Amino acid sequence: MSLIEIKDLKVHYPIRTGFWNRITDSVRAVDGITFNIEAGETYGLVGESGSGKSTTGKSVVGLEKVTSGSILYKGQDITKADNRRKLDYNRDVQMIFQDSLSSLNPRKRIEDIIAEPLRNFEHLSKDDEKLRVLQLLDIVGLDADALYKYPHQFSGGQRQRIGVARAVATNPKLIIADEPVSALDLSVQAQVLNFMKKIQREFGISYLFISHDLGVVRHMCNNIAIMNRGRLVEIGTRDDIYNHPLHIYTKRLLAAIPETNVNQREAHRASRLAVEKVYQEQQSKYYDDDGEAYPLVQITKTHAVALPQALAQQLATQEGEVQA
Amino acid sequence: MWKTILRRFLIMIPEVIILSLLVFLLAKAMPGDPFTGSINPKADPQQIKHLMRINGLYDPWYQQYWNWVVHLFHGNLGNSYQYQEPVTRLIEGRAGNTLWLALFTMILTYIFALPMGVFAGRHEGKLPDTIIRVYTYVTYCIPFFVILVIGIWIFGYVLGWFPTTGSISSDATGWLHTVGSRFYHILLPGLLGALFGTVNIVQYLRSEVIDAKHSDYVRTARSKGVPNRDIYLHHIFRNSLLPIAAFAGYSITGLLNGSIFTETVFSYPGMGLLFVNSISYRDYTVITALVLIYGILNLLGTLLSDIILSIVDPRIRIE
Asked: Which helix (H) or strand (E) segment is A174 a member of?
């Protein structure tokens, strides 16, 4: 059984207009998403900004009011606050945020920040609690004197590691990482990502890794889902997505990765322009009449794409994939 | 911490000197004199001039100021022209009453305003928020002395629940009875002051709570699984309290100034009433002394604000 099953999740925000502030329309931030999260796996959720990936992540933690659909954990629908409380859900599912400074309370010491999840769920004695906080700091490579400092006294990378320590404090089963490294410079990105991988190996945590950085996603994730306009357009393993992309949106995203090899720049540029041309000419084939993505069609066991059945199969045979 | 306080204290010295100079000159600039009409309506102008002269009122201003400051350092604020009594003794008897009333009003104000502000912020845009906002705006619109007059009429006169004048009943004996009677006399003005003085605190706190509840660290706390009640207590309330704490000191002095209305309407023998009377009688010595005291209390109020701020926000302490 999957750790978490997301079924037809929708998050719509009402648009109010007019004198009486009546609801006239809605922004469909997330519009019908279905996928499962298995224990110990890393999932990448990729898409341009505004595609609904952060909203999906926040819904899974329970920070977002879900319009319809369900998220099942241990057979219970955790979109309801009652079920979350009953299951101690946030003990098992934690979140890491992008902005490491603003997401830590500026007037609390690191000791209190890291110990707070422990105080919520596992009533430890003062000494045990302190010991646990020290352990956590050690895991993410910070000294004991960090205990009595405030968030603004750390560098960005250190703060993000504090965020990681805080998230793993309750031994969670799943951590949602919402662009955890996009505010950090490259050397620090690697440092934080490697800590996250190390922690995953040690504790068997699942990650839902939300990012628009395809390089980082490739480094971190075995399974990748591509989001566009609130819907999933393609889902598959790292190999499926990077080597056999089917949807035009995925192809465009991949074509946008800068090429570091100077000799191949021209070829890369040509292929990017080719993809862009296909997108301009055949947009109507890839999206339905409202400009929305189609429902997902299974191509192989691991690979699914949001296209009409016929087109999906045609493209799959071109790519030489085995039929499911 | 001590460095912070000491430094703030040193800044106060030049402030007090400038304040005293201003107070003295402004009091001198008032038209009229303390003797005309107060001794005997038919008094000879020559005699008044003589009185002015022997009281030093014709000396150059800097000499008068110097005399005043020298006396000040001897703990002598001069004699009241009206009461023929040392000003110190005059104020001594009334300062307690005023402080007692101001303190009581302030405590009540915070007891009413803090929960209202948090509650309104928490239910932003909903019915409870609208009710609290309308309430605070209405109380803000009505002039305070009108409230006092209406209050004294309904609760003091028509219903007769509270005394309408004085600070203590004349037949109060024994410790318990005295304190009880004093408390009974400040209950109505204190309640009115608190119920109609919440607007600043409520509005500030409300907007701070609204800001804080959408902040990233509150989102983090929610994702940690902190119960809603604890989020409001430990994360939102504490951070929202900063600006409130910042003007807690000022609000004390604000209440002292407000005491001028309260004490006049309630004939409550405090510094405010004394101040109003002294102005109408051109009782220079009392006026200067009172304005100086109010001024120093204002400075102490800001000092208090800074100290509170450095306790609430550990980041601004000088290490």
From this structure: strand A174-178
